Amino acid sequence: MDAPVATGPAPEPEPRPDPGLYGPDSVTWQCHGDPVMWIAGVRALYLQALHPRAVRAVLENSDFRADAWGRLLRTADFVGTVTYGTTEAAERAGARVRRIHRALSATDPGTGERYPVDDPELLLWVHCAQIDSFLHVLLRSGVPLTPAQADRYVDENRAGARLVGLDPAGVPADTAGLAAYFEEVRPVLAAGPDARAVDAFLREPPIPALLVPGRKLLWRPLVELAYGTLPGYAHQLYGRPAPAPGRVTRRLRRTGRVLRTVPARLRWQLPPGHILNAMRRLGSASRPSAYTLRRQAAILDEPGRAQHDDGGGTTRWRRAD
Q1: What phi and psi values does residue 269 have, to the nearest 5 degrees?
Q2: What is the reported pTM?
Q3: Exposure pattern of 119-133 as b/e (b: 16+ CB <10 Å)?
Q4: Consecutive sets of 10 residues in the chain, 321 residues long: mean pLDDT of each?
Q5: Which of 63, 102, 149, 199 is deepest in the core (most CB within 10 A)?
């Protein structure tokens, strides 16, 4: 009779890789790898600068004019870490932002009152201006989001709002809530000297003389395109007209198509490489792609796609069948 074979405890299963706060099943994951996000980031700066206290907090507590490129890259790094990094990395990045904000204050340009930079009202404005800009430019450039996916995008990014110190319960959870927020906050907005300084800087940032032709040929058209995508009330506040909305949309779609011809893996090689790191962690199936969004839409959503109002006076969402 054969002796029984000794068996030990079953081996522990390999731990699943951490997808982070969003993961490949999210709309945010699929969208934030699109190259038009850089245009969306400039639009967000234009929009954020229209809140007098928010822009004063930036200009008073950072050397924006001397280190604007560094600030833009740090913001992009934060968004990339929160979107594609591990949960631990995202939480660590959020804790750092909260720690910095807690130590800062600014002076109201109208009343002289001192106020904390981490005032929830200001954090909410910065968050909503950013999410509105990201979603607006993605949609208007041709990324195929349905209304349900647009709502999910807004809802998902309440996780990022929590990281900077906001209570997610008080943050818009869908596009209707986002539109209502902008209606409510509009009376506060103005284009004072601080906002005009941001506008002037974005149009002609200081660069070495050898790069001035590149600024005129490449940077300035992108900035003007980002400005053109702002809502009509923002153009009125800045006092600079924009091309007709239809023309802006056509330019943005053409620009999006051109940028997307650059191979994604080449674009994603740029530091700090969040997307490639995420794909190494989770596998090639985690690659961000608009085709993934189309598949999700076919399974989960009704036919049609969401489209942002073409630069009108209000932020509205509608279905384009």
Answers
A1: -70, -20
A2: 0.86
A3: beebbbbbbbbbbbb
A4: 55 75 96 94 96 95 71 86 97 97 95 96 98 98 95 98 97 98 98 94 75 70 95 96 94 95 85 90 91 68 42 38 31
A5: 149
